Amino acid sequence: MNRILPALIFLLAAAAAQAQTTPFDMSGERPKGEPPIVPQIIAPQTTTQPVVPQTTSPLATKPPPMTPQTVTPQTSVPATPAQEPAQAAQKTQTAASGLRRYVVPFAKLRLEGEADRKSWSIYLTPEQAAAPAKFNFAYQNAVLVAPEASQLTVLLNDRVVHQQQIGSSDNESDISFDIPRGLLQPGANLLTFEATQRHRVDCDIPSTYELWSDIDPARTYLSFAGRDAEKLSTTDAIRAIGVNDAGKTQFNLVVPALAQPGTTKPILRLAQGLALLSGMPNETFSFGTDSLPPPGPGKMTVVVGTPAELQPVFAVPASAQSGALATFATDPHNGQQLLLVSGPSWQAISSAIDMVVSPTDRDPNTRRDLLVTQRWSAPDAPLIYSGTSLSFEQLGVRTTEFSGRRFRTSFNVAIPSDFYANAYGEATILLDAAYAKDVRPGSHIDVYVNGSIATTKPITGTGGGIFRQLPIRITMRHFKPGLNTIALEAMLMTDEDSACAPAATSSTTPRFALFDTSRFRVPDFARVAQRPNLAAFAGTGYPYNRETDPTALFIDRADADTLSATATLLGQMALVAGRPITLEPTASPSTVGTRNALFIGSVSQLPSTILTQMNITASSQVAWRPPAPGQGGAPEASVTIADWRSRISGGLLQGQMERFQQWMHRNFDITLSSLRFIPSSEQVFTPSNANTFLIAQEANPTNDATWTVVTAPSSGDLRSGVEAMTEQSTWQQISGRITVYSGKTGKIDTVPVTRFAFVVSQPWSLTNYRLIAANWLSSNILSYALLFVAGSFLLGVSTASVLSKIGRRE
């Protein structure tokens, strides 16, 4: 007994110590098979990496084999003790895995609701497609997502490569798996993320908005084993530039002769060609003159100049002394591969640039069938020019069964720049769908166009039903030139959800089915261009996309910031236009003549006559100065509209009139602007000091061309403003005659067009002119009423005249 008692005391003490040192574990929430995350500290070490010697092979040939060379660690900012293990681990992982290609072309990727799907394509070189590859991604979901009933699926080229339960609400989980050999292909590869999510406790429709899973772009990438995947040999290297960990693509152009006037035209043509070849949604261009920028994911360095100009920056091969050269070369200092464009003169350099850009050239009179969007939203959007009917299968929407409460899917279509049917036309969805017998009346199907609800179709039947080509009409006023996104959402209510019994949230019994035989039909619509129209400019690059003659380009001065902003803007314009815009730089606005023109520069450097033509106050050249960082703006007055309403005589009547106008607009879509005989004149615009960027469009003084001004208070504001506005999420918000942007708040405001001119864009057609008249009269109600009364009067007079000559008189 004396021996047993001490042993029991020892065992009890050990158990208590174990209970005190073991933390509370919720690993039961993790999916089966997922190991717990264990932090590891990896000591920094010197790595040996192969570095390619400088090559001079042309774009059509591959560089010679690479030889290993020890890389000397570069001096960097000292890391904090907390950062050193993570940085060391990252360096070791990068060295071990070879090339890393980030694949998410967005700053943020969220899968929302009970069912969501995002698809886009990534472009791979033949070397990358042949190399062994791993796919890595990190995700975190809302705490209300039920792991046992929710799944995340990754597909490559329509093949499931990974599927798992969604169960990482406490922190991000890193997932890594091998890509089956032979699945990746040279060129475009379709990547898809799918999420099926169910709520833990709630069964109603509002709770579905609480479901989400975030994919971290900075930790989502393809890693290729070996060094062959890093080879750049053909123009595929430009198409395969990809993105960085924030979803952005950057071209760094090093041009020592940047300040020379003769270099602007070929350099901007090269920038547009690079933008078209890569096809990425968030592209920026940066210019330098005296040094090579550091390499990185989603970046490409392009060195342009004669051998003499490039001598202090890069050693150009002797072949550039005798002819045009466009090749990939390797910097011997850091091993980065870059695009070298050189020649004995700038005329030869222009020929070398044409070698790179010519695959993207297209006759402006050739009609496009697609608006290229696959790098961020697959498939490409079909361009609809007239009456068209497309099946959901053609639009990328698949037959789907759904067991939740809120079903949502979407597709893209594109509209030409001369679209003019915003007041009378209707598109139609011919829906093939079915709903289960437990779906009760009160459920409905909603259609959204570009984020705004367009129509609602109620479900009134009981006992289930099948829709065969059910027409759902959508007014065309929701559409705009360029890319349009149509979303279909089914709100499904059942008695089972009202009771919300245990396990009801995870039911897998289908309630709704959407069939890909559904169709989207667009009627014939009026086609005539309007001036000004920034929506058409942002949608398809109009009018510059249709010009056969060079567009006049006025740049106030060729500094690095202004040229970077110009190249970024023109790259985005070329992307939506589907071809490079032909430019002719001009030193003076007086030489523009009757050509379409672009004016880019800081507001103080633009001629005041240009601002006046844009209906912008000339005093803005001095008065438009946003507060500097750390400098507070002018204090805002505390006065309110109600205060002034009480001061003005007749304020009560004015308030009643405003409420009546709102009621008329809400119920009958009638505004004061539509109750007019002729459009009112444009008001002069004064940019606020809260704005840091402005884009405006108007007719030239002779009303036979379009002028577009892109300006900001300074060249730095101009560059940052262009980079912000050319992002895919903001570019489509450009509209009206003036669009302004605030760099501090990210707010975008537009000034609508009140007076515009028609620009004939189609051959004469009675049908088209009838549609134009129908839309114009629908927008000008009083004019329509006047014509109706006049027509009725003439009909009455002519009828009375005829009747007076026939028949019997008494």
In short:
The chain has 810 residues and is an alpha+beta fold.
Q: Can you characterise this structure?
A:
With 810 residues, this protein is α+β, with helices and mostly antiparallel strands. Helix content is 24%, strand content 27%. A 7-stranded mixed β-sheet has the order 32-31-33-35-34-36-37. Strands 3, 4, 6, 9, 11 and 12 form a 6-stranded antiparallel β-sheet that branches. Helix 9 (534-540) packs across helix 10 and helix 10 (560-577) runs parallel beside helix 15 (715-725). The protein is globular. The chain starts with a helix and ends in a 5-residue tail after the last helix. Residues 1-97 have low confidence and may be disordered.
Number of strands: 38
Q: Which parts are unreliable, with pLDDT below 50 for 5 consecutive residues or more?
A: 1-97
Helix content: 10-25%
Number of helices: 18
Q: Sum up the overall morphology in one term.
A: globular
Radius of gyration: 31 Å
Structural class: alpha+beta
Most strands sheet: 7 strands, mixed
Query: Which oligomerization state do the chains in this entry correspond to?
Result: single chain
| Strand residue percentage | 25-35%
First-last Cα distance: 142 Å
Mean pLDDT: 84
Strand order of the largest sheet: 32-31-33-35-34-36-37
